[in-house]
Amino acid sequence: MSIQRFVGRPDWYTTFNPETLATTGTALRWGVVATGNIAATVTADLALLEDAVLQAVSSRRAGTAAEFAESFGFASHYYDGGPDGTSPAGYLQLMADPAVDVVYIATPHAAHYDIAKAALDAGKHVLCEKALTITAAEARALIALARERKLFLMEAVWARFVPGFQRALEILESGEIGQVKWVRADLGFPAPQDDSARIWAPADGGGALLDISVYPLLWAWGTLGRPDSVAATAELTALGVDSQNTLTLSYANGAQAQLISYLSSHGPRVASVSGTEGYLETIGSVNNPTGLRICAGWDNERVEMFEHPGSGYTYQLREVTRCIQGGLTESATMGLDDSLAIMELFDDARRQMGVSYANDSRTDL
Ligand SMILES: NC(=O)c1ccc[n+]([C@@H]2O[C@H](COP(=O)([O-])OP(=O)(O)OC[C@H]3O[C@@H](n4cnc5c(N)ncnc54)[C@H](OP(=O)(O)O)[C@@H]3O)[C@@H](O)[C@H]2O)c1
After folding, report:
1. Best mutation site among 37, 78, 343 for ligand 1, i.e. most ligand atoms within 8 A of its Cβ?
2. DSSP letters of 200-242?
């Protein structure tokens, strides 16, 4: 087996490379909503982009807003009530800030629709964490609003842009492993049992499906396309969210995919894509593989390894930046029709699993 280690900029590594940090146009002024785990990780990567200005952050709480602003160097910070206790929610103050061009939303999923709608209503472009919304109906309404207002909107499926996934698609397109017949992918981790934590709480859209399944699904979606049917099973907690689920996807051409997402066990976190001439599998987690093992036939095996700046989020941030700078309202790579179709698939899976959320019965869309 030959092992090739790609460091820096190999020939094929042209679109998505460390130069992703270099400016591609007029600087964008970013507002970040929420100060939790992913807000901090993505903001640290955002600060690496030459044409990103950390303009404002909002939080529900004064102390965390100030602390987050200071640690990353945001020009302004907003919090519920404001200094005199009478101002609207911090995120609404941020939307009213004329210095903010684009808003990154990093709250639990159940709040995504309302906050993204407020941003679009205020004329801001939006990058919203996954899951884009809780329901397909919310996603449909949000997408219609963004299109009507001619504003950029993208679901933050960063894994769509990382080098390991991009390279896998390139290998498939080259025909090296032939026609894809099946995909198997898993992702998860043992989350501490705490019904109030957003990952478990029904009010926050808790459960493995909305939190994790988009990543294994990406491998099936990217290699085989939108499935013709999904069969979903799950183990539910006492509060009715899925602690693990299995999605079996079927395609009219006979291809299949089996995807497992989990919050109560360890797992290999591997994606395998099997074709008529060979197969490939990820090394490292499916959402940002550090490498690929490619087996083209029985005796021809190699490994390709990848490096990336920051924590791997710069690729999606460059995509958002480049799209907005270029006057695009949608990414061709992580498009809104795909996000909607994924939410429709999740609605279908939830019906089969017996999982529902308060957002299912909203009447204001
Ligand atoms: N792309 C990725 O790799 C990745 C990784 C993890 C999570 N995520 C996604 O990012 C989102 C947040 O996840 P997280 O792990 O960062 O969660 P987290 O650590 O709990 O942070 C969420 C933050 O949102 C705010 N918040 C909490 N409840 C809220 C509510 N009901 N309404 C409005 N704001 C609320 C809080 O910030 P304030 O107190 O400052 O308001 C909180 O710190 C989820 O949608 C998740 O799926 C993405």
Report:
1. 37
2. T-GGGT-SHHHHHTHHHHHHHHHHH-S-SEEEEEEEE-TTS-E
